[in-house]
Amino acid sequence: MAARWPPRAAWPAASCRADLTAAVPDDVAGAFDFAYDWEVLHHVFPDARALYAANVHRLLRPGGRYLSVCFSEADAPAFGGEGKWCRTPLGTLLYLSSEQEIADLFEPLFGIDELRTVEIAGRHGTHLAIKALMTRRA
Ligand SMILES: C[S@@+](CC[C@H](N)C(=O)[O-])C[C@H]1O[C@@H](n2cnc3c(N)ncnc32)[C@H](O)[C@@H]1O
Question: Could you tell me the pTM of the whole model?
Answer without folding.
Answer: 0.91
